[in-house]
Amino acid sequence: MVVLAASAHENAAGTALLDRVAAQASGTVTKALVDQGFKNTVVDHGAGLGIDVRPGSALAAQ
Fold this sequence. Notes:
It is a single chain. By secondary structure, this protein is an alpha+beta fold. The protein has a two-stranded parallel sheet. The radius of gyration is 11 Å and the shape is globular. Helix 1 (about 10-25) packs parallel to helix 2. It starts with 9 loop residues before the first helix and ends with a helix. The longest helix has 16 residues, at about 10-25. It is about 50% helix and about 15% strand.
């Protein structure tokens, strides 16, 4: 779990974190659950890396 400071920009931190995970996990991470504060930028970036990123509201629907 990663917790961001209130001053951190979620999209920038989210894309950077996904880049690190993709590089270090060698394709073993395929799903990520994120807070609703993350925007489509992070979801789209994850998709490009082969990671299915789902906002917290997706959890409530399951």
